[in-house]
Structure formats: C-alpha cells, structure tokens
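Exercise 7. Given the encoded structure of a 103-residue chain, write a plausible sequence.
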C-alpha cells in the first residue's frame, strides 16, 4: 500500500493478474487494508488497477467484498484506471455502477 501524493489517499496497487491465485494471496491484505483505513477514519481508498491486465470472477468477487465492507463503514472505494480486459469485465459484471472509477 502507498499514498496518493495528490490527495493523500491510501492506494492499493493490484497485481498484473487479479485471478483466483492472486485473490487467495491478496484477500487478507486487502481486507486488512480496508479495516485499517476504517480504524483511522480514512474517508477514501483507491484500488489502483492501472497495471492489471487480467481479472477473473474471483477478482471481481473480491472487489465486491471490498466495496461492501468500505460502504458499510462509510468509506468511499475508488477503482483507478481499469483498462483493457479489466475494464470490460468491470462493465459486463455490473461493477461500474457500484464503484467510483477514475480514468
């Protein structure tokens, strides 16, 4: 995790492949990241998908879990720069209507 220097928002960069294998490795880290932000009163979190080239339904499922957890605690979760196959999956899965998306 790092911070966005422009807005001091915590940023979690997704890996180049956000699939079943990555989901298992990242699930706890992402959930802990959201929980930590909630505990510190952070109003906005950024999931950076700019380097992610592939996402599957497992990755989409984890994004939904994160979104739900963030919203339940009043935190705005932003998906940054999804592109290519990731962008298509976000649109076809219906996530585009649930996330704030930075282009």
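Solution.
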């Amino acid at each position: 995790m790092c911070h966005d220097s422009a807005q001091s928002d915590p940023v979690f960069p997704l890996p180049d492949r956000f699939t079943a294998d990555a989901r298992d490795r990242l699930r706890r880290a992402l959930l802990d990241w959201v929980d930590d932000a909630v505990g510190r009163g952070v109003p906005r979190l950024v999931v950076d998908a700019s380097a992610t080239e592939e996402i599957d339904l497992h990755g989409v499922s984890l994004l939904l879990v994160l979104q739900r957890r963030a919203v339940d605690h009043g935190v705005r979760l932003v998906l940054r720069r999804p592109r290519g196959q990731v962008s298509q999956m976000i649109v076809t899965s219906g996530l585009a209507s649930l996330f704030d998306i930075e282009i």
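Remark. The chain has one domain: 2-102. Students should compare their own answers with the one above.
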